[in-house]
């Protein structure tokens, strides 16, 4: 055996390219005769386009074409309503991309987009999510395929009979993914074949969607995504930019570069739905929960149903004999919500982990002890055994590292000068899944190895982790292995999303490498010039997995300092301890976990999509007004993990790291703020006026 | 004036200008649309794709370059205003054969994930190191007359204009601190 690359820190392979500015993203490939697209958003909320006048735009020097529903190439209507772009005059929400200007320069395209004249017939609209909206309905399932409602025992009776009750409603606003690289594409048609360089989280899915939309064979479409500037869910499925650029390139018969503007990332690419969540917990005086209920309300659009699984988190997190969860949805005249880092679990955990803190206070017991007392032995939802469950280990280790032990539980008890200081804790979990993928491994005559899989590295470190895993599976030093990812010509693989990228891809790679070793063991003589290649797919193996509850866990610890005069909140310390199976590369793992926690700070304190209900559009649709955490907002932040071997996951024993870092962060901050100030904030974000303006502010 | 940039009646030579400046030590002479930003000049006319377009509104810092040695957001500057200026982009930070200590520290500290904000972070960090060395105080400097130390608080404050959605901030601060210590 080699010394083993898995588990050892290694700088990411593409690091030198990224620090020298030579890593190429979607609209950065040199091209002859390239043109530029600029998308035009609808100004109406709901209605129909009655007239488009492209002439003023076409009069702008350099403008080549104005695409709209009246002239754009036809697409198949059967793929995905969101992608049926420039095909009909219907307007479903303000900001919907309804035209595209193509020009010789960015400047001309932008000016042209400003000059397109569009008239609309409008209808009344409804854009605000409320708990009593007349359009509330029960979807048939919630994402990805969970039952809408669940019930066990008799919640109502058990809650009524409980000695201690918490009944609280929590609200989260719309959150916008905002990867630093916008959704961007370079598209070009050559001899009926479509080549796109695209920013996405999985180009196999983009290839499939484009082939179906344009009615051409899959192998006539190639999607290259070598470097991707973040996604956080919003690039998990093909979106408008890649379709618009492909339409335009066909129309003008030249390559087209199209990057959405930052403003256009607030809507057309999806966002985290706002939620209204009622959580009820009933326990005995010692905090043993008898009854637990989580009712979640969220929104979708009139285009398609997106039913976020907000309350699913509560189904498996803590034990209670009587339990119920429900999801209700409203179709509004708004953009369709979509995945954003831990969709469902993240806002769901904010509600449940806040409610647990409220229960701990009501019972007068420590919030860690409360969680330990309600630790289930099997999955409370399905009754399946856990493949591994180390929530308590995370809580205990974190408590020691954080210095939780000498905490005075009284709110507002600790003051240091102008600062009220408080600490908070929250649990976290996220499913550990894998999706079928294919891979090849090649032994080359020069002693090197080439492994190929259409994985995507959106900044996770996947390229490096898979390279380490392949080396160990081949039992060779990693320096002899070359890895290729990010190209739909490679063996098809699932998305970089749902914390299942590395689990899915490493599985296929490991099988290909193992098979290659077997074949090489039986091979005599020198290898042919093209080397010896074997292919593997995990479809059958994944389908045959036995049903178990597979989750990553985490414990978040936070110290906040709240200005006693102004209510300003600073997160002075943040620690996350996680149980995530095997950690392949500690360097990139730590970065990903810290990144999730940082987005949690952002969610708790800064981010909030403010809707203008007259127009169903967010007022704050840029970085000047929609605030995300900046460098000065992040002080001491640490992530670590407990040793965890789990043989019921996948050959590498990984659980995934992308989401778990954010899941409990906002609740831990809200719980710390309550400890510091006495004010329980049940509607994010925690802004100073909600603290300093509260009568219970210490 | 109102319709100037969009009017087809404006003659071509009035919409563009000749400009000459130095980028990473190389003299460049270009005829550019007057509306072209420095960022789009670098990316679309000079093939220097290091500086990134994250917002095009001077709000994210991804396009940060050094103009006459000082940090600027290249999306907010019209290129035709830069006659005879000297510009350094991320492509100009490394030596001919090896990375600069700052770039090496960014790799070693894993001070980035997706890498899209990284060229801007690096140029900004280069500017911060120079500002610190020259004793420029910031909003968090306690002694405005003394030597400015490269503390974490100083670095965080000075790097606050460069957003990173992946959340690499603590590693960015560590990389800059480490590099400052080497000076």
Automatic annotation (TrEMBL), chain A:
InterPro entries (UniProt xref): Ald_Oxase/Xan_DH_a/b, Ald_Oxase/Xan_DH_a/b_sf, Ald_Oxase/xanthine_DH-like, AldOxase/xan_DH_MoCoBD1, AldOxase/xan_DH_MoCoBD2, AldOxase/xan_DH_Mopterin-bd_sf
Highest taxon listed in the record's lineage: Bacteria
Keyword set, alphabetical order: Molybdenum, Oxidoreductase
Spans through the membrane: none
Pfam family, one: Ald_Xan_dh_C
MF annotations from Gene Ontology: iron ion binding; oxidoreductase activity
Keyword Oxidoreductase annotated: yes
KW Oxidoreductase (keyword) present: yes
Chain ranges of the Aldehyde oxidase/xanthine dehydrogenase a/b hammerhead domain: 20-124
UniProt cross-references to SMART domains, sorted A to Z: Ald_Xan_dh_C
SUPFAM superfamilies linked to this entry: CO dehydrogenase molybdoprotein N-domain-like (SSF54665), Molybdenum cofactor-binding domain (SSF56003)
Protein name from the UniProt record: Xanthine dehydrogenase family protein molybdopterin-binding subunit
Source species of the chain: Micromonospora musae
From TrEMBL, chain B:
Signal sequence residues: none
InterPro entries referenced in this protein's UniProt entry, alphabetically: 2Fe-2S-bd, 2Fe-2S-bd_dom_sf, 2Fe-2S_ferredoxin-like_sf, 2Fe-2S_ferredoxin-type, 2Fe2S_fd_BS, Aldehyde_Oxdr_Iron-Sulfur, Beta-grasp_dom_sf
Alphabetic keyword roster: Iron, Metal-binding, Oxidoreductase
Domain 2Fe-2S ferredoxin-type stretches: 17-93
CDD domains linked to this entry: fer2
Name listed for the protein in its UniProt record: (2Fe-2S)-binding protein
